[in-house]
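Usage

Read records sequentially. Each one opens with the input sequence:
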Amino acid sequence: MRLYEYEAKSILSQYEVPTPKGAVVASPQQAREATATLNLPVAVKAQVLLGGRGKASGILFADTAKEAEKAAEQLLNMQIRGTAVRKVLVEEKIRIRKELYFGITVDRLSRCYIAAASAAGGIDIEEVAAQSPEQIHKAKIKPQLGLRPFHARQLAKKMGYNGSQMVELAGIFEKLYRLGMDFDAEIVEVNPLAETPDGKFVAVDARLIIDDNALFRHPNLAKKRLEEPRDLSPREAEALRKGIDYVKLEGDIGVVGNGAGLVMATLDVLSFCGGKPANFLDLGGGASAERIATAIETVLSDPEVGVSFINILGGMTRCDEVARAVVEAKAKTGASKPVVVRLVGTNEEEGKRILREAGMSVFDSMEEAAERAVALSHKGAVE
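and closes with the structure output:
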């Protein structure tokens, strides 16, 4: 789950990480009113869940309340890489002597978190990482130890700081690590972490991504995830509200499977056969008939899907229940799109009988079923 900048900064403030004073607003008038409570000048920042906002003119500056109002109006009427701006953050503009970078993310190869820091932060940090990797200082964080004070001080020292500044900067690193662990974060990033002319440090921008699998530990965030689509498509958001693991892709072959590994394998086989999957949808193990029907309806109702491939290995999931759910879902949606089913496992003969009587193609082999689904998708494209 991606958090907006203002949400991330609110959490940073809870951990006493310095951030600019500001307010999030949804209209130009609110921006003008908010500016009256802040020290001028101010920054007016589009709130979108995308990187590269600064280079896309998503951050404007204002010296007066009227200018802030105009800036907010401009941002609220624009799109950044296809995403409409619905809120802006109005905050005091920080005087910056130097832009730094600090981030914590998961190093899956090493199976641990890794901290990265640089004295060359700002909007060009990607270019710095690509062209001058020696300017990015990293520290692997052992799960048993965490980010210890000496780790934080070493990073601050490598960035060129010593004395009280090193201690203060290291303290911010420790707080950001603790925040990340408390919130089950996949990414904690502050860029830029600004050094001000008086030698202090302020998180001018912040990025926070929470592991979706840990949202049950954060009910307030889970509630927001359900209430607001955020970075999800409308179909993905609706599937989420129904408790279905669904990700929209760009192809025309709808996919339903039971088990994430099986679904991933299905996507691979379809691609190998020359097809383009339209989605990832995992029923999970032991899905009820109602859940199965809802999942299949979600796929069949997608106008970009020309053919659906349902791939089931029935263990806890009964094949006859899957078959009935497929027939029910197709009848309910009124879809005339072809459905290809690979059905193996518990009560598979009964399941196959139900599907064949409904006029659907049923296979034992995933490869044969995938080839059939791809052939049908190509036939539809030609027609």
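Summary fields computed downstream for this record:
- Residues 98-219 form a domain with the D-amino Acid Aminotransferase; Chain A, domain 1 fold (CATH 3.30.470.20).
- The mean pLDDT is 91.
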